Each structure stands twice: as C-alpha cells, then as structure tokens.
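Request: Give me one sample?
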Amino acid sequence: MVIKMKIAVIGGGASGLFLSSYLMRKYKNINITIFDKNKSLGRKLLATGNGKCNFSNFKALPSDYNNEEFINKLFNKCSKEELINYFSSLGLMFYFDEEGRMYPISNSSQTILNLFLLDLKGANVKLETTVNNIYQKNNKVYVNDLEFDYAVMSSGSNASIDIKKCDSTYNYFKNLNLKFVKLRPSLVGFKSFDKDINILKGYRSKGVVSLIRNNKIIFNEFGEIIFKEDGISGIVIMNASHYYEDGDELRINLLPNIDLNELFYKIENRKKENTNPNYYLEPIFHNQIISYLVKKNILDTKDIIGLLSNFNPLIRSTYDIKDSQVLKGGIDVSEIDDDFRLKKYNLIFATGEVLDINGLCGGYNLMFAFMSALVCAKKIGEIYENKNNKL
C-alpha cells in the first residue's frame, strides 16, 4: 500500500509552477491541484526579462535582497549551483551574460513555461478561480473548503497589475493572522517635482546613480537612465528604488566618462564663436539636453557641467504598484521556518513573492521564487517519503 498525498498550490506563477512540476515529476502518488485567478498559467513568467526569461543570476549575493540574513540561510540550504543543475537536468540549455544573468538559449520565456507545463498534464488546474479562504482543521488543510493534506501559498503579488482591476492577492489568508509587512512598489521608476523634465521624455543616457540618505550614499551604480514625461526610469533607477525610503535624494552623474576640464574648454571655445547655446552646445549634447538647459536658463559653462554631473530629478514618489516589477512587503519571514513552512500551521507553506523578500533587477526575484519552491518541494517530498517508509 502506498499513501497518496493531496497538495493545493495557490498561484500558477513561477514559484507554484516550479514546485508543482518538481513534485509531479518525482512522485506519482502526489496529486496537485493548482488554483489560479488568470485564464492561463504563468502569465507573469512569460513577461520576465522582456520575454526572454532572465530566470536566475549566478552573481547574486544575499546583500542584493532585503532580509539579507534570511537569504543567506537560504543560499546555504539551496545553492545557486543546485538550482542551475536542476534546470540542466530538465534538458534546458542556457547561457550567462556578463552580469551573471541567465537566459534559455531560445531567448524565450515560453521555453521555461513549457518545461513546467509538460510535467503538469495530470494536475487538476483550476483557472479563473479566486481563492477565498484557507484554514487548517483536524490535521487537514482546506482551500475554498476543499480538503488537502498540505497547501502552498505561491500567489505572488499585485506588482505590474492595476489594483483596481484585480482581486486582492492577499485576502484569502487574512484569517491566518500572519504578521504582514506593508506593500510598496519596488524595481520601479520615480516621479519628479521638476515640471520641465518632460522636455527629456524618451531620452536615454548612461550615468552613475546615487541614492543619498542623511548625507550618506547608500546606493551607487552605473547604468542606463530613461527619462519619462513626469519622471525617470531605467534598470539602474529601478535598482535604486529597491533601497529607497521617503526623504531619500537621487543624484545622477550624466557625464561619468567625460573629462570635465576638456568639456569646459570645448564649450568656452565654441562660445567665443557664437553665444547662441544651440550653437556652442550642439557638438556635445543631445538636443533634448540643450532644450532642457535653455528652458532652465542654465547657460554658464560651470553651471552646465555642475547640473549634468550632479543632476537632481527632485523625487516626488515612486511610480505606482502597477508600474513596478515587484513589491516590497508581504508575509513577514519570521512567520516561516527554513523550509518555508508556516510556524503556526504545520500543513501550510508559503513561497515566492507572497513573502517579504525582494531583490534587484536581473533575475534575482525569479531566482528566489524558484529556490524557495525547490526547498519547499524537497521538504514536502521528505514528508511524503517518511510517511510511506513507516508503512
């Protein structure tokens, strides 16, 4: 006789799909039911890495996440190499870029999604289904009043979703009375008080971005900056938002690789020929930068260099949740053990972005979703094997 086990997985995103695929691949007598409110599984997964699926980052460090201590323990329990080897065992071929980001050689998120879906043909998938409740009673767990042996909350977050157009991702477990960290946008751009920043809309530049708190630099990184109609974005800006708190100041060096003495000399020489800024700035700066300087009446050479080497976009706030890639906040990590099991409820686990874990751009968050799922799935597998070994 073999004991069967019924698992409810709430959320058919990256973490839920990985966990379900792992368990169904390894254990024939573990039955999986996936609850997902969307019309298809893996909707957000398909959008990751601009559709290329940046599924991990080999250079990731615990310091690249909030709750660094928790991530350090996770990395000791499940190494990046173990995760990579698991994907390799599925037959996936992938490559690394210079930043440690990992992509399937197909450069398609569909490749990763298909890997999971092929393993889920025997799963009970409930699409367009909102989970209204979860509770534990008499050594069983109930999801929408259906009975299971264990449940995994992998419902992700409302990042990138217009909050007005979706049901709350978090209401179903309110009855569990878990400590919950307030949600805020992360990996997101900043709105600006500068009304003239719209002149720079669409302009892209490489620069050094610094985030300053109490006169101390808490973040400093080189990368691409993208100006918007009412603010500023780009990967380096989104990484700054990972650390941002109200009151912080953003400073950008838009002239990081330019000899400022030579720049001063070039501008001054052109000024001697013609004092029209469109003339003496034309050989050096993009026309949008020139238009911005003219509108601000910043035409003195020292002032031009000072502004562009220490540009302050005057942060008003981050953009909204619907504009963010991930969210800060979620179930506090003090509520789970090292295997992602809830300390208060021994039959319920939580993985992925439903937890208060968020990292930088570049595969960090998807890697956490997969690593947390792998650790959780291994624990469920261990429980299943122990029960059968006792027969």
